[in-house]
Structure formats: C-alpha cells, structure tokens
Amino acid sequence: MSVDTHSDVPTGQLPTVVERKVPGPAHSAGPARLLTPTFALAWVVNFLQYLTFYMLVTTMALYAVKSFAASDAAGGFASSAFVVGATVARLFSGYLVDALGRRRMLLISLVVVAIACALYLPAANLPVLIVVRLVHGFGYAFASTALMTIAQSVIPDSRRGEGTGYFALGTTLSTAIGPALGLFLVGSFNYTWLFWTTLITAVLGMMLGFFLREPLAKREAQAEAEHIAQRRRFSFRDIAHPAVVPIGCFMLLVGICYAGVITYLNAYAENRGVTTGAGLFFVAYAVAMLIMRLVLGKMQDQRGDNVVVYLGLICFAVALGILAAANQDWQVVVAGAMTGLGYGTLMPAAQAIAVNAVPAHKLGTGISTLLLLTDVGVGLGPVFLGLLLSATGFGAMYTVLAVIVVLAALLYHAVHGRHPHAKRGRTVVE
Known about the structure:
Elements: E1 2-3, E2 19-22, H1 37-57, H2 60-68, H3 72-100, H4 102-119, H5 126-154, H6 160-188, H7 191-209, H8 216-230, H9 245-272, H10 275-279, H11 281-303, H12 305-325, H13 329-356, H14 363-392, H15 394-417, E3 427-429
Keywords: Membrane, Transmembrane, Transmembrane helix
Organism: Kocuria varians
InterPro entries: MFS, MFS_dom, MFS_Exporter, MFS_trans_sf, Sugar_transporter_CS
C-alpha cells in the first residue's frame, strides 16, 4: 500500500515525505530493483556530459588568454560563461522537461551540446568563444535536468537515497578524470586535441541518448503529466518549486563554500607551496566519495536524511578548517578526502530530499530548482570571495567559509532537519 502526501506547499516548509509500505517477506521476493537499463544508460550519458564539462572548465581561461590575448578577467569570464548559460537555462528547464517530455528535451539538448562542442574548433575570437560557452552551458543544463529526472523516475522510493548516490558517482568520477584528462591533452598535445576529444565525447553521449527510453508505464504517466502541464500557463512555481526552495537555499550556501575550493585551489597551492597536494586533492575527493556512496545512500534510506546531511556538514567544515591552516601537501590531500565526504555527500543527499518533496509529475521542476540555487552559489560565490580574499588572505577566507557551513547547518535544521520525516527512513516494514 502506498500513501502519497506530496502537495505544493508555501516556501519555507517542506511537505511530509512520501512513505511507502513495503510488503513483508511473505509478499515480497526482495528489495525493489534499482539497476535497470534506463538507470544504467542515463548514468553513462550523465557521466559523459560532466566529463565534457570538467575537461573544458580547467582549460578555458588559459586558452582565452593564450589564443586571443585576453586579460585574466576576460579569460575568467570565458570559462564562467558556461555557468551563466546554465543558470539562465535552469530558470525554465524544469518546466519544459515536465511539459514537453523528458526524452524529447534530452535529445534536443544533447544535439545542442554536440553542436556547441563542434564550434569550439572554428571559434576564431574571444566573443565567439564566449557565445559558444554560453550555448554549451545552456544545453548542458537542459541535458542534466532531463537525465536526472529520467533516472529519478525509475529509482524505487524505498531506495531513493541509495539510487541517487549511485547516480551521483558518475559526476564524482568525471570530477577526478575530467580535469586531469583536459590538462594532459593540452600539455602533451594542444587545444585542438582537447576540442576533438570533447566533441567525440559529446557525440557519443548524444548517440547513447537515442537509445534511452523510459519503461512503458513511466512513459504513459509522463504523457498524462505533459498533457496537464501544457494546459496551464508558465508561472513562478515552474522556475522554483516552493517545496524545494528551502533545501535549495541550504545548497546555495554550501555551493558558495564549494566555489571557494574549486576556484582558488591552484592559487592557494602556489601561495602555500603545496602544489603536489593540490594536484591530488580531487583524486582524494573522488576516492573518498566513491567508497562512502556505497554506504551513505542506504543509510539515508534506512535511518533518515539527518544522519547523512549532518555527517556531510561536519566533514565539509573540517575540510575548510584544514585548508585554512594547511602548509603541507598531505594536509591538502586530507582536506580533499574530507571535501569528498562533505560536499560530495551533501549534493546527492539534497537531491533525494528534493525529489521526495515534489509530486512525480513535477520532478523536472524540483530538480532544476535545486540545481539552479546550487549554481547560483557556485557561480556568484567567487565574486564575493575574491573581495574577501584580497582583504584577508586564504586562511581567513577558508575560516569564514567554515563558519558559513555552520550557518548552513542551522538553516538545514530550521527548514528540514527538525521535522520528524527527516529523522526516519523512507521505508516502513509492515
């Protein structure tokens, strides 16, 4: 028996989570199936999308400076233009995914991404490069929203945290492989090799996307939801679903802290003389995340959201505290592992919370709301942190970020953690 308590609620209050009554042993042959062809294929396509992103994000600023004699500020914008395009797309990607269909929007966006990757090769000046980055970010936002929505639609409710964690492993792997691969291609060959590699990766993702289909029952339910969505007008709720805004604001704060890590890690390493440790930072991040995701997703399903989220917040605060004081390579590597247990835990945990806060036909809007607010934190964070860094230095900046994590913990408790459904698992054995 299943009782759905989802409903649209005012901002600032999350609805009671859906609880599924799981039949006892006499009625069930085992746990609901998680690894399905749809889930596996969505995982691969998602991994390829993020791999393309990470190969380029670490090389674009320097490419603009070297190839087009751009200033450091202009080169930085050439890199961050991707995030600008993605953030704009997030404003209505959820609505269009819900209204026009997940697979349809996925295929369109994968074609846009492939075209954008092809245009890196002939881009002859900085303005053209910036436009290509904007278009790439735009297509990427739609593709990631559609892929996550499709994957979430086939994850059993009783294994939501576990399934979301496994899906997030693709992003974790791309975080470890993408930057290293991009720097290797540029260092050992040239930027042309980099752009051809990203184009091949994007085309492969596009081709696999054509084979990605939801199960028949899911397609029928989606068709009905599309029909309902097409009859109503676009509204603010289609940009930011009220039920997800609270946990999204929590992730906005977390995103600011993560931006302080990924944006300034190289400059921090040169300043502190820990370049070797910085080179291994994301390797440690990925390894710690890969190991713990095998455990934390199940723990979230069985023991509730709080135990996982508070663990992630503690680990992230510790990581930032270590960075504030570190002056040896091994300390930076430890900080990388703790960041993996921190931010790498919080993002999939928040996705599971967001999915359970919205009805099935609003999955796209719910996911895009969370990603939009996280992107705002990651995108705008460096602007304010740059001013803080100039005034205080790296030690003080990372100390302030650790304090922001503590504030994020207080916000989480206020909007979600204090509620009973955050303290218990998603399954109740009858």
